[in-house]
Amino acid sequence: MIHGVALGIPWTLAVTAAAFLIGAALGLPLCAMRMSKLPPLRFIGLAYIILFRSIPPLLLVFFFFFGLGSGFLPISAFQGAVLGLGLITAANMAEIYRGALSAIHFGQWDASEALALPSYSTYIDIIAPQLIRVSLPSAASYAVGLLKESAIASTIGVTDISFNANYIAKSTYQGLTVFGIAALFYIMISLPIAALARFADQKLRARVAL
Amino acid sequence: MSDIAAFWLDSLPQLLAGLSISLQVTGAALAIGFPLGLLLALGVQSKVKAVKLPSLCLVEIGRGAPALVVLQFAYFGLPQGGLTLSAFAAAVFALAWNTGAYTSEIIRAGLESVPFGEIEAASAMGMLPRDTLRFVIIPQGLRVAAPALLGFAVAVLQATSLCFAIALPELTSNAYMIGTITFRYMEILSLAGILYAAICVPATIAVGVLEQRLGKHAL
Questions:
Q1: Which one is the CATH code of B2-111+145-218: 3.40.50.970, 3.40.50.1000, 1.10.3720.10, 3.30.230.10?
Q2: ipTM (interface pTM)
Q3: Of B109, B106, B108, B97, nearest to B36 (Cα)?
Q4: A positions 121-180 inside 8 Å of B (CB)
Q5: pTM for the predicted model, two decimal places
């Protein structure tokens, strides 16, 4: 029974990791749009963020898997789940980056200007490394949340922890035990992520200018 | 285009019936979950081990396990222990637990934000600890926690979509049902998304405004 539920761990990790990577990457341009000086760009960024934080992840995943999948674009359950969760993660990561950006001391911008650094160099060499360090704790706690949210992939047939737990519970009628084991797996996976993030945060925090 | 409009108009009553169930589950889960969160916040801070440990357990499991798994545990798991819940009751049970666990942390942060001097002042005036809690700490702490609590209420409405997994006929389930019959998933899921957004977008903006206003007073 434990083994059967454990078979889903790689899929849970794969959905979480893929959705997080998409979100972390898409979040950057989205954050830039959200903070742009051009009103249309700013509006599009803001609209995306509010909209994708307002639609339940399950519905969005259904939209891609059943909606797009039914005749528009052949899409696998895994792709549908990753796409839906990834786009929502992008909206949330954009807000995390925005929060982190305001935590970077304005002296860093002034100093870059005083040194006549070109603007790409200011972003790539000065701001981005600090941005990643500052946003790490929030990003890590979002990743833990995403790990749990990834359970919705089971509803469209991705054979993750929840899917296997559900399958075994229905065939053995021992739901109490099976779902207890599934919950334990999720907690056991999230603990090292949280611990790792705390450790990395302590190391990296020392390298952010105040 | 008029074809889609006609289809939407046809299926709207069924989606609205689903939305009404979603809102009922949200309301019941919040009505139980918020007081539970306050109790758990106080329980976790308690010095009595017999109170502290169970509270900590409830909070950690509620926060550590996915809401979907708690939901399936309540609906498919509890019968093994001799307790069979209806889909609605299971949904309320799971989401109230989820709400209690998460809001206990929000409320705890709110309670801790009350300056220690106020607690000292209350004790210097001879107030009983429970009166200090009732009249000094909780009213101020909840005010600080209010925006985050409202934000969580929006998240609970979104989480009701998970009840699809236990066949509760809420908004997402109904949309999916119509999709399986008509095979027009794209249109019907879009309409469901619009309905969710119609509630969640204004609510999210309102929470943001409230946050800014209260933030001003804090400084």
A1: 1.10.3720.10
A2: 0.88
A3: B97
A4: 148-152, 154-155, 161-162, 165-166, 169-170, 173-180
A5: 0.89
